[in-house]
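Protocol step 4 of 6.
Sequence for Putative tick serpins 36 (Amblyomma cajennense) entered exactly as in the expression construct, tag removed. Do not edit the line below.
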Amino acid sequence: LVLNAMYFKGDWKTQFDPEFTDSRVFRNYDGTIARVPIMFIIHTFNFAHDDELNVDALQVPYADDQYSMILMLPRNRQSPLASVVQGLSAQKVKEIVDSMEPEEVELSLPKMNVQKLLKLRGILEQLGLKVPFTDAADFQGISKGQDLRLNEILHKAAMDVDEKGTRAVAATEAQFVSKSLVHFKQFIVDRPFLALIRHEPTGAILFIAQIVTMQA
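Step 5 output, structure tokens:
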């Protein structure tokens, strides 16, 4: 068994005020509704709209400026998130980030605890990596003489998102609005979305979460 675990921890550069966190509606991909804690902040964020994927994208920086979270939200509420994922690549993310401009934004973002355990054996075998899982495997360099082969490879990823940072609708529904007469762009994450953790100097995507269902 090979276990690969990744955990990212980062505080937001500008943290959310817990007093503004409220229970609000999140519409899951299957049409069901969950009432979940949603954080709120008005701040200047880098924002872009991508016509090709038809998504709005927002960059939320961490205190360590080398990292940021990129949020992607389909403009069409009926659009399946899978179509966005299919058109996504590190280069595409770079294009979107490079096109961003600073905007005053009202951001509503659910608190999240995302955990995923993936069994990779089947995927790797489909890609042609089969020998390590058979009796022909040769791990003598690391097994101290023991005759070993791989049984499974597990990949576990975890990401917690709250007011401090990341640790890696009915007609009567109330919405946060600004009391100011100044108009802010709204980025309301109340439906399936993508959250990516990006290393800014290299453009590497360290983590990507496809959030399609939330539980109350």
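Step 6, annotate. The chain is about 10% helix and 45% strand.
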